[in-house]
Amino acid sequence: MKKISLSFIAVLLLLSGSLQALTLAELSAALSNSDTRAEADKVRDAGRKPAEVVNFLGIEEGMTVIDLVAATGYYTEVLSHAVGASGKVYMQNSPASLTGDRGTRTAAAIDARLANNRLANVESLNRDFADLGLSPNSIDAAIIALEIHELTRSSDPDAAGNFLAYIRTVLKPGGILGVVDHAGNPGSDNGAIHRADEEQIVGLAEAVGFSVVGTSDLLRMPEDDRTTAVFGPDIRGKTDRFLLKLQK
Fold first, then answer.
1. Which residues fall within 8 angstroms of residue 206, CB to CB, at 6 or more apart?
2. Do 71 and 93 form a contact (C-beta atoms < 8 A)?
3. What pLDDT, on the 0 to 100 scale, is given for residue 188?
């Protein structure tokens, strides 16, 4: 019996080892060495530290995840590498964001990124937040990067809270929402300069039932005084950014 038990344990250990997440070094190497990943994305990695962000959020192989307000899909492709062939990535954009001159360019960039099934585990989801068409408790992790400030500056004062409440319903128990955004100063008109107040986001998240299980200084830029618009030539790509790990 003892020999059988030890053999059984050895098999379990072998199987569990084969299902472990990519290490931080492995994911970093995969992103850097990908022959098909756009050079423009690789250039952005220095400021965005995607492998470190994904590692911090605990996103692993085999997970089902969603990139919210994915735009042209920078993080979608990162997540595609992170969850692997056994995982799935939803690439969400609202239909309205894909119309007009800018939207047409975004749609073309998405088509180019997904051409020839090069990200086979990715599915485009062109739907609004109010109805993503996803089953409750079906998503392991979600990320919204540099976009939640748009909800706090909306004419609808409940937009950000409603978004957080809805995303919480589609996450599995214990599921994670990662939030990255340009940091603003408390009490300032952050919406006007496309920034967000971290404590405001935390308060909204906790009000709908999320727990803050982690914060990170990975993307902090202390030289940014948080008073200028994020698109200015001297600050673009160099803003101070907060990173939150919220759990259902």
1. 212
2. yes
3. 93
Report residue 199 as tokens.
């404590």
Residue 245: alpha-carbon gap to chain centroid = 10
Instruction: Categorize the per-residue pLDDT at 79 as very low, low, confident or very high, splitting at 50, 70 and 90.
Output: very high
Query: Do the Cβ atoms of 108 and 150 come closer than 8 Å?
Result: no
Range with lowest mean pLDDT among 13-27, 60-74, 171-185: 13-27
Instruction: For the full predicted model, state whether its pTM sits above 0.85.
Output: yes
Ordered domains of the chain (ranges, CATH): 23-247 (3.40.50.150)
Strand order in the sheet with 211-216: 122-126, 88-93, 64-68, 139-145, 171-182, 241-247, 211-216
Report the C-alpha gap between 219 and 143 in whole angstroms: 15
Any idea what DSSP says for residue 22? Answer: P
CA–CA distance, 119 with 41 (Å, rounded to integer): 15
Determine the straight-line distance between the first and last CA of the chain, rounded to whole angstroms. 42
Q: Please work out, in degrees rounded to the nearest 5, the angle formed at the alpha carbon of residue 197 by the alpha carbons of 163 and 129.
A: 15
